[in-house]
Amino acid sequence: MGSKTAADLNLVSNSLAFQQYDGLQSVDCIVLCGSPILHCAETIFSALRSHPVTSTLVICGGIGHSTPFLYAAIAKNPRYADLRDAIKGLPEASVLDVILARDFGKAAVEEAGCRIVVETNSANCGANAIETRKILESLDIPMPRSMLIVQDPTMSLRTHASFHKTYADVPCPPLFTSYPTFVPNLREE
Question: How far apart are CA 50 and CA 175, in angstroms?
């Protein structure tokens, strides 16, 4: 692969990842979208364990196109492989919730004031936004002023757009910030 090809692919990667967040400033709500990229969940769970930065965490994801890949990622990961049988058949959000509870101190995060909501109906980026709004409203959680959207870097841009569309009818919608947790880049070797 030539350096021009790597640069072109990195341009696409940077555009899709749509990285907007670079620190641990507080937000009203974090939305963690289910994904086989475990780094996304681990980054958020570690941050919440050490420094509460939100009052609400929504873990969203039903059973969709990437669910088998999430199961495979769990099975291959030395830290989580023993969960392989326990998570089989669970929606993506429930799988991530199991990891949060077992490995990242979910109870302590909740005791620190973070409400954790598990949404298991969404099966794609658009549904992540729609179902997140539905569950927040059904639980009478006030409209967030700011929302950090954590998604696989290849789907961050379209997920961000889905949240904008889902809240388009709100006079003062949340400030949406995209956070894929990393941006993949290629280099020539």
Answer: 24
Question: How many other CB atoms are found less than 10 A from the CB of residue 171?
Answer: 5
Q: What is the pLDDT of residue 52?
A: 79
pTM over 0.70: yes
The string of pLDDT tens digits covering residues 100-116 is 999 999 999 999 999 99
Question: Interior CA angle at 44 toward 29 and 129, to 5°?
Answer: 45
- How far is it, in rounded angstroms, from Cα 95 to Cα 64? 13
Q: Is the Cβ–Cβ distance between 121 and 131 less than 8 Å? A: yes
Rounded Cα–Cα distance for residues 32 and 96 (Å): 9
> At 109, which helix (H) or strand (E)?
helix 106-111
- Report how far residue 91's alpha carbon sits from residue 77's, in angstroms, rounded to the nearest whole number: 18
| pLDDT score of 157 | 83
Smallest Cα–Cα separation from 157: which of 27, 7, 13, 26? 13
Contacting residues for 169 by C-beta, under 8 A, at least 6 apart: none
Sheet strands (E) in the chain: 29-33, 56-60, 115-119, 146-150, 175-178
